């Protein structure tokens, strides 16, 4: 299906492209700009925490390599083959579960060191705050969310598709 796409015009980084000629870094950039601020630091932290656990013999490599490949293979395919993309990263939502698994591993590692419930609750609140503010601010159009590095929806307006 990716080789015989329906072509659309797509607004990306302030330029209109045909959906089959977007730049190679389109998907990674959209994922970086359209997910809440805490997602990628947590995902990377989870990957580091899992590497440490693997080195200590606390997790089996087969489990974690499957999760990594679940994310890396489709993203590498999109970057190298550059299939048609439209509606943001909607057609690639299946790559998000391993990102959130990594985030969960980071939180697990953090909570194993910080055993005070008040500190955990404060960190949870800080991690959830950008998403909650976005939900409230964008009600009833939450799919238009863009994070602060993107300048929010206002910064992404006329630079990226903000509503699928």
Report on the structure:
With 164 residues, this protein is mostly helical. It has one domain (24-81, 91-149). Helix content is 56%, strand content 5%. The protein has 6 helices and 2 strands. A two-stranded antiparallel sheet has the order 1-2. The longest helix is centred in the C-terminal third of the chain and has 22 residues, at 117-138. The chain is flat, with a radius of gyration of 18 Å. The two termini are 20 Å apart. The mean pLDDT is 87.
Low-pLDDT stretches are: none
Order of helices and strands: EEHHHHHH
Question: Overall mean pLDDT score?
Answer: 87
Strands ordered across the widest β-sheet: 1-2
* Helix/strand class: mainly alpha
Instruction: Report the helical percentage.
Output: 55-70%
The portion of residues forming beta strands comes to under 5%
Largest sheet: 2 strands, antiparallel
What's the number of helices?
A: 6
Radius of gyration: 18 Å
Domain count, please report it. Answer: 1
What form results from the Cα inertia axes?
flat
Count of β-strands: 2
- Please give the alpha-carbon distance between the first and last residues: 20 Å
Secondary-structure map:
Layout: E1 9-12, E2 15-18, H1 26-34, H2 39-55, H3 61-81, H4 96-113, H5 117-138, H6 152-156
Helix pairs in contact: 2-4, 3-4
Task: Please give a handful of descriptors for the protein shown.
164 residues, mainly alpha, two-stranded antiparallel sheet, 6 helices
Describe the structure in brief.
The protein has about 160 residues and is mostly helical. The protein has 6 helices and 2 strands, in the order ββαααααα. A two-stranded antiparallel ribbon has the order 1-2.
